[in-house]
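Methods: holo model generation. Sequences were used as deposited, without trimming of termini or removal of tags, and paired with ligand SMILES retrieved from the corresponding compound records. Each pair was processed once, and we did not select among multiple samples. The sequence and zinc ion SMILES for this entry were:
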Amino acid sequence: MTAGTIMPYDEALERFEPVLGLETHVELGTRSKMFCGCKTTFGAPPNTQVCPTCLAFPGALPVANAQAIESTIRIGLALNCSIAEWCRFARKNYFYPDMPKNYQISQYDEPLCFDGYVDVEVDGKTVRIEIERVHLEEDTGKSTHVGGATGRIHGADYSIVDYNRAGIPLVEIVTKPIPGADRLAPEVARAYVTELREIMRSLGVSDVRMEEGSLRCDVNVSLMPRGSSEWGTRTETKNVNSLRSVERAVRSEIERQAAVLAGGGTITQETRHFHEDTGTTTSGRSKEEAQDYRYFPEPDLVPIAPDPAWVAELKAALPELPSVKRKRLQAEWGLSDLDMQAMHNADAIDLVEATVAAGAPAADARKWWMGELARKSNESGTPLADLPITPEQIARVTELVASGALNDKLAREVLEGVLAGEGTPDEVVERRGLKIVNDEGELSAIIDQVLADNADAAEKVRSGKIAAAGALVGGVMRASKGKADAARARQLILEKLGVSE
Amino acid sequence: MSLIRKTAAELGSMIAAGEVSAVEVAEAHLDRMAEVEPKVQAFLHVDREVTLEQARAVDARLRAGEKLGPLAGVPIAHKDIFTTRDMPTTAASKILEGWRPPYDATVTARLREAGLVILGKTNLDEFAMGSSTENSAYHPTHNPWDLTKVPGGSSGGSSAAVAAYEAPLSTGTDTGGSIRQPAAVTGIVGMKPTYGGSSRYGLIAFASSLDTPGPFARNVLDAALLHEAFSGYDPMDSTSIDAPVPSVVEAAKNPDVAGMRIGVVKEFAGEGYQAGVLARYHEAVQLLESLGAKVVEVSCPSFTTALPAYYLIAPSECSSNLARFDAMRYGLRVGDDGTRSAEEVMALTRAAGFGPEVKRRIMLGTYALSSGYYDAYYGQAQKVRTVIAREFEAAYQQVDVLVSPTTPTTAFPIGERADDPMAMYLADLCTIPSNLAGNAAMSVPCGLADEDGLPVGLQIMAPVLADDRCYRVGAAVEQALESRWGGSLLSKAPQL
Amino acid sequence: MSAITRDEVAHLARLSRLALTDDELDHYATQLDAIIESVAKVAEVAAEDVPPSSHALPLTNVFRADEVRQSLTPDQALGGAPAVEDDRFRVPRILGEEA
Ligand SMILES: [Zn+2]
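and the model returned the structure below.
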């Protein structure tokens, strides 16, 4: 790996204009694999979800999963694609040990869905990303490299292969070249992948977990000199496996290509690899010969001819798409673009929506998810949605606050208890004894004690220095272990001392 | 008459009636195999105990009153291209030597359900690529009519086993004629069902869009019974037809061709055809006419390009189908010395594990699919396929079945065409069009060629899912000829 | 002129993962040349307006329901493998792309 020179991003953008392209692979969340009945559970013991078909044993044959076909068509429809009236699977032939048949069943010149688009918003500006095609294929197995330095493929002594993943349905979504993103290219790329992820979620077709590889992204970048309209040679960066990496990979590749071009060099059309640690890309091993995949129609599978009436039904039954929903919710919740964007970036919209649906006021729901819980999420590195707390539980906490049973401080403690696995909000309140002291008699007794213990402060208040009441309220809160209603305590203190604000 | 000379139908009735046990029938055949295998070499794998165990199980099922089909207890020789749980499956290739599949092919499973007893796995041209069974990586098989001659191929072990009375029935697969041609040159009946009429699941693929499992038997009715036993819709094979099996047994029992329209394919005669083959063929056509059929000549001009189209389509598919033999998950591994890469080990293994014909076809197919050549070769071959299907369609507007010689010559000497692929390929000249169009086709014995005294086959072709017509016409020819001969053609074969 | 050169045959052998000797390459070059010349006859069928057939029969829409079926046991899956380690297929080092 040689660290090439780079040109600072601003300078690169002054001299060149980037053209993007994205190929995204989405593993569908079907129960069984694409062409056989094996399970698709992530993380199962090695080679326990395999059969003659997905191990490519001699004689075994594929039969296409109806649900995968339907999901792919729904994805195509959600991306505003046309759906093929008739199309075929094709074999993509190349030898690789993690691909049991040494060909991948894919689609070639007859994709199931084609010519669509998706709009994304970046910096208040709508960018239309055109979709070239959406097709269905199968995933490969996974190799682990043994020996050598770091478990990397180079220098390994040998590899061991688990085929559990082989044959899981994989949808490939390919954009047309995206010019015009200009200096926002990295953000556009990120926004596009984010949007795809949300669309997949709203369709319920995949769990789209980038960290588990169920959403994977290849990023194509080329540069053309400002003033030119001729696209440059593109590189394809693989292994871009987080939203942040998508953004960084584009930026890094722009900086690298700009330096090469400015130095009089040329860009090689090649595969590059993104490295999370350095945020840079390196060249993939150059192949001895150009790949010749020898695509031909898959003779073991018959053509797909979706009934137009069925496609129309699927289209009519599509859920509200995320961008439309965001606009609606923003209006309903009365939020600024900035607030909405922040929630979007934090992946909080669905959570807030669910919390509102569970009865919480939108402002409260947003306050908790974007405040206390976002902090917890950052601290623990756990995505918001994966925190061990449900929107219903948040709604319950807001309800307790609204009824006066909890104040914000107590509410935070309740959340902490729920996150710590101590039970439901009500159970945490019960177990930790977190109810506000709203028994006037008990509160009055505490106040009397505090006034007696702080005679000086009480005297100051009595003499008109109302600001000194703060210390007394603090004393009451301490004495009640935070369970007193601070506002009510203040009211009572002033009453008892015969002053008013 | 000894058990081995009986028909499958007779054996089935005897076993059902309790006159003889499945074990006794299996033993009689195993004994016959022990006697003639040194000469014929039809089998790649025989395991007496595994076979007898199956026979005992069938006897037990029958004793328990289980209702089994008409072939329960009847022995069968199974082409070693179908996976079997209890016997190795090699496709006659070194690359799969000793491989024991963890699953049964659908055809295998249906044989077992019907109570057939598998005698062993029969020899074939490696991965079914060939017309002589000389391309087996293990040994050639000899034609029981003349041990210096080939038994045809690729299902030559299956044809020889039936012709040598080692088994009353056997399975084959037909990609370009691999059932019909061996049936023709060994004097037995062989049927290629409609593509999709019999399941390919567990059949080690040669050319997926052409491969079709089918039966061999010494007479038309037995072939029909076996056809019915293992054919029909299979949800594990996407190209399987979800329709009832044509009523082939009924057709085989009704050998009546009066009023049938029979088309003689004009292109399949003349230059390149052995005189004795043409003589028997023309007699068979006259015979059909004398039985009341209406015979007309039909021209299918594109049938002459079927052979080149086939030798592009089949190798293309095979180049991809055989990619899975890569030394990673099963089978042979050569050259893994700890320093070589997976890629090198794959290439060394495949070079060592595949025979010359397989390598030839893999490279030919790789060539035909390569960018730059695809349109001229594979693409054009697929158009020819359409044209041939259309010519069949047009022909079937005029006639009910088409007939031709099954193969241009009788069995040729072992070794004669072994390293002359072009000459070898000609053996499938007449059989290939039916594979390209997916039609049904049968070969039925029609006599011996005068010049060499070897069997000649009549090919009967019928439209998709009209397999029963092949059986009706085949049975009529068989009945008329056997009464003329005073017995089956095979009864004229020399003693082994 | 020959339809296929020895170099092309060597390329095909590489693409097909067949480690052929020089003698084999010569032999196959001659044979493939003859075969290709012969199969080129397919071009004689005028078929510009004819659709290609990839399948024998015009079936469409054959699917299976998304239902889980029994997988193999690890023994069945791995039992025929040339080498196994930790319930995985052990294979020689892969000259792949840097991951
Ligand atoms: Zn599977």
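The mean pLDDT of chain C is 91.
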